[in-house]
Design goal:
It is a single chain. It is built from three helices and nine strands; from the N terminus they run βαββββαβββαβ. It has helices at about 30-55, 115, 145-150; strands at about 10-15, 65-75, 80-85, 85-90, 105, 120-125, 130-135, 140-145, 155-160. Strands 6-7-8-9 form a four-stranded antiparallel beta sheet. A three-stranded antiparallel beta sheet has the order 1-2-4, with no helix packed on it. The radius of gyration is 28 Å and the shape is elongated. One of its GO terms (biological process) is actomyosin contractile ring assembly. InterPro entries: AHD (IPR012966), Cytokinesis/Rho-signaling (IPR051364).
Length: about 160
């Protein structure tokens, strides 16, 4: 709420290496069922060992490294999904690099406050008749009284704001 139109959304991708030997990731699918439980146990043991090592060094919790990032602005909002570029960070240890291909897809949506919130309201005179009016959602709506507007009764006049 109340985000300025010159906002900048930063998407950051972090990773944590569970094990140094990633050969287990290249195991053929045909033996997947056989090794599924052992992989789960192995990964669990590696994670536990990693966390234990980090506790001994004084660091609490796993250490995550920034792998890639992207910046999106109001110009990137759209009704459709679009591909955006990732900026891959230079890694000190290339063996820890994730298989990122430099792009990601997403739909960034933004909505002006005036779509869902009242911009202004008050008494107006329409055709010599006192009415209560409200500007919201690119419309001016008017009712015979403020009470009818608050009860969300059907408005007597609705004028679309198109320019």
């Amino acid at each position: 709420n109340n985000v300025p139109s010159d906002f900048e959304l930063t998407l950051e991708i972090y990773s944590h290496i569970l094990q140094e030997d990633l050969s287990i990731a290249s195991t053929p699918r045909r033996i997947k069922r056989t090794i599924h439980s052992s992989i789960s146990k192995t990964v669990g043991k590696k994670l536990a060992a990693s966390l234990r090592d980090e506790l001994n060094t004084g660091k609490i919790g796993p250490h995550f490294e920034l792998m890639a990032s992207a910046k999106l602005t109001l110009d990137d909002t759209d009704e459709n999904i679009h591909t955006h570029d990732l900026v891959i960070n230079n890694l000190e240890n290339k063996q820890h690099a994730l298989p990122l291909f430099g792009h990601f897809c997403c739909r960034l949506a933004a909505q002006p406050d005036c779509m869902s919130k009242e911009v202004c309201s008050g008494n107006v005179c329409i055709n010599e008749k006192n009415c209560w009016a409200r500007v919201q959602n690119f419309e001016i709506q008017s009712w015979e009284s403020r009470k009818l507007a608050e009860e969300e009764q059907k408005s007597i006049y609705t004028i679309q704001i198109t320019k």
